[in-house]
Structure formats: C-alpha cells, structure tokens
Amino acid sequence: MAPTPSSTSSAVTLNINGEKHQLTVDHRTTLLDALRERLDLTGTKKGCDQGQCGACTVLVDGRRAVSCLNLAVAAEGREITTIEGMAEGDRLHPVQQAFLDLDGYQCGYCTPGQICSAIAVIEEHAAGWPSAATEDVRPEAGPPPLTPDEIRERMSGNLCRCGAYVSIVQAVTRAAEAHGEAARDDDGTPAGTAKEAAA
Amino acid sequence: MREFEYQRADDVSGAVALLAADPSARFLGGGTNLVDLMKTGVERPARLVDVRELPLDGIEETPDGGLRIGATVTNSDLAAHPEVRRRYPVLTQAVLAGASGQLRNMATVGGNLLQRTRCGYFTDLSRPCNKRAPGSGCSAIGGEHHNHAVLGASDHCVAVHPSDMGVALAALDAAVEYETPDGPGELPLADFYLPVGDTPHRETALPPGALITGVTLPPAPVAAHSRYRKVRERASYAFAIGSVAAALDIEDGVVREARLAFGAVASRPWRARAAEAVLTGAPADGDTFAAAADAELAAARPLPDNGYKVTLMRNLVVAVLTELAGEAAR
Predict the structure, then answer these.
(1) pTM of the model
(2) What fold, for A94-198?
(3) Inter-chain contact B105–A60, Cβ cutoff 8 Å?
(4) Each residue of B190-202: pLDDT tens digit?
(5) Domain limits of chain A?
(6) Residue B13: DSSP 8-state
(7) How many CB pairs under 8 A join A and B?
(8) What share of chain A is helix, strand, coil (3-state, %, to 5)?
(9) Which CATH class is domain A9-84?
(10) Nearest CB to B101; choose among A74, A134, A154
(11) Fewer CB in 10 Å around end: N or C, chain A?
(12) In the predicted model, what is the mean pLDDT of chain A?
C-alpha cells in the first residue's frame, strides 16, 4: 500500500528511463524496492540487498550504482537508467547483444546488473579511468588497454553464482571493441582520447 | 529499519544547523555504509540530513601547491583526477583498491573517513561489542579475530579500520577540514582518529555535530614514487587483511625521505613513524627495509589467530619498498 506523506515519508518524482514517475515513498524505501515493488520495473534484481553482489546495479546520472543502498527519496532529481531503458525499441544495446551472442550468463538473474555495470565500465574506460589492475595510474601513461584482467577487476562488483565469468569477459571485450570502433568512426580518434585530454 | 525524517541540505551552514537541532540525526553521503548499517539496526538515526548536493564536490589547487579535495567528491572522481594520479599515485591506487566500481561512484571522501569497522561482532546485534554497545564486552578477543588489529588495540576492542583511502591519506600528511555551529576547524589525519583505549565507540576527534567539508593534501614531491599494495583473501572487491602505502625518495642509494602507513592492522590508518625513522638516511636496500618493518612491528601484540599479520606486514613492507627503490633508481 502506498504511504501518504508524513514526517517519515515524502512525495517524490523519480526520473527513470526518461519518464517521470510521481509516488509517495516511506523514507526507508530503497531505490531498488521502489523500482521493483512500486513501479513494476522488475528487471533490476535483488540479490544480497547489502551492496555486495551487484545484481541491483543501475545507472544514476550515467554512472553505475547499487540501487539497494540508494534511498528512493535521495534519488529525486537524478536520472535513473535501468536495464529496461538500455534498448532502443527492438534494437538491443550492443552490450546486451554481446551477452546474448556469447552466452554471458546461465540462469540470468545477475545479468541485468552485469549488463548495466558493463555499459558503465566501457564508458569509464573510454574516459581514461584507471583501475586497480592498471600498472601505471599516472595520466602520462595513457589509458590502459581493456585486457581481460582489466575487465575482471572492473566487473568485480558483480557476482555470478553460476560462474559465467569466462563468457561475461568475452562479451564485455566484444562490446568494448565495437564501442571503440564506433567512436573512431565518429571522429577518427580512439575512444576516450578527447575526454582524456579535456579532463 | 527505524522510521526517519529526511532533509536535503542546500548549504554547509544549513546542514550543520539541522544536525545541531537533532543529536540523533546523521549526515547521509553516498550511503554505502550508513544505509547498510541502518538495514541491520546498528545505526538507528531519527533523521537523515542528505549532504550529497552540497557544493563540496571540487578538487582544487591550494596556494602552497597541494590539493584540496571536497568532502562530497566521490571515490571514483578522486581516483580518476589527473592531478591526484600525477602527484599522489598512492592515493589513486588506494582508492581503486577499495570496494567496487558501483560503490566508488557512490561513496564520498568524507564518508570514507567515517566508515565503520567491518568486525562481524559490530554488525551482529546478538553479540556483545564495546564499539556498538559500550560496556558490553568484546566478542572478538576470545572469538573470531583472524582479521583484527595487531597494533594499537586494547582489551576493549581489536577491530580494524577498513579504509584503503585513509591509509594513503595518512602517509600523505593529509588534514581534515570540518564545519561546526561554532565555525570551521581542521584536524591533521594523525590526530583525527582517537586511540582505542577504553572508549572504542568514540572513533574520531571531530566535535559533536561537525560536518567534514574537505581534505587537504600538502605538496609531497616524495609521492612521485609512491605505491599502495593491498593483501586480501580474494583478488578484488574485498577488505584488506594487510596493506601498505609507501613513498620513497632515494639519492645515491640512500633514502632521503620515506613515507609509510599500514592498513587493516589497527583501529585507524597506521602511520609507521618508527619505520620511517629507520629508513631516513639509511642505504636503500633489503636489510634496511626489513629493519624498518621490524622497528614498527616490535609494538605488535597479536592475538592467537592473527599473528600471521606481523609476518605478512613485514614481507609486504620489504616487497613494496624494494619495488619503489627499483622504480626510483631508474
């Protein structure tokens, strides 16, 4: 039952996949529960509910975050993108397509979180962000190649109980290569170069 | 979870005033630790004051050539900042060694400093814990303590501080800036965390109701050759069982300046000043590095199941300093 506004609940407008949703939330409601239980956006999965498994990963203002540790009331004013917002009509996001083509899952429960995370990983890498697997983090060293070691490190916040990791790494690799080619087609320079210089 | 009121603060003075008006309130940053603890009932605030939209999200040059990092800068933005990577690579490495990409996007610098221990008894409401329930006792000393403190602990608490970022900040002589209803203040990181003693529930020297507004890093040319190395029970996304932040300046084979701090061995990021004293002016070789580690670890008081940390830290210090010496000599 939807709560009415009080000192411990609030009427909020959540911007999800470009659509505005008005609802009243008990302040204890996480973004994850608001998505699943109030807005019927059940693509985002609840795994551990403690920020440890990554199944609930969504994008908040374009950056990946675990929705189980975000309060819905604190998400007002932010742009939330869930797995339901990744495809363009019937055309899957290239990362979704790569997971399909390369069997980047078994049971599929962690897959929406894996895909949301992978989409952000490719953007973070293109922006020149180093990771714990990057040998030299100094900007002069340039962006590290997105090797399997880099992908495993960058995706370590998404657990897969089936152990589909081998295929997940392959899917992220293929999607990242496609992303890099698309970026080169756009402006003739490798992905991330312009952003890095401006950073 | 206890019901709570929620307010978003627009400016620093407003945030501080909201907390001063309600001692049971807590500031909400990224929420990666606080919301989790609220779910388990360890934290039961009656009000959250959301500070994430305060204008504290910048990284700026300081007049002396250091950097000032705003309290709401995310761990991700801190680690990715070109000047942090260039001048303080140990800090970028430390931040990237912690948590996951999702959590680093959420977690703030101020919140990272104030995160609570991951001691299993602290989060288990059914067990005594002096940090959570003062005077109830410490379950870890006679219980599961393989990842607990070997330095600076007491008979009242042996929990370790979980931050990676804080270990690098300790080595870099960082200072924590804060705001209170009575005005601003600053604490060197060395004085920020209180000794455990018989008050493990009192963790920092921040005045009641203070809001961390930023962290300043003084210029540190020594950090040009610096490194963070973390040992954990799996390769990624786990808390440390031991870590080292180190910086080394070597000239003609002699250590001119050294910075060393340990993580996951004490209730706070542990600046290894006894080791630094041995290193400074000594030949940059394995014997010196081992002697430095031994000087710091002479004060270690391991429990029955965490003595391995003394050996681990000794080996880690020697390995990291040897790597840095090779890099600095190039």
Answers:
(1) 0.96
(2) DNA polymerase; domain 1 (1.10.150)
(3) yes
(4) 999 999 999 999 9
(5) 9-84, 94-198
(6) H
(7) 116
(8) 40, 15, 45
(9) alpha beta
(10) A154
(11) N
(12) 92
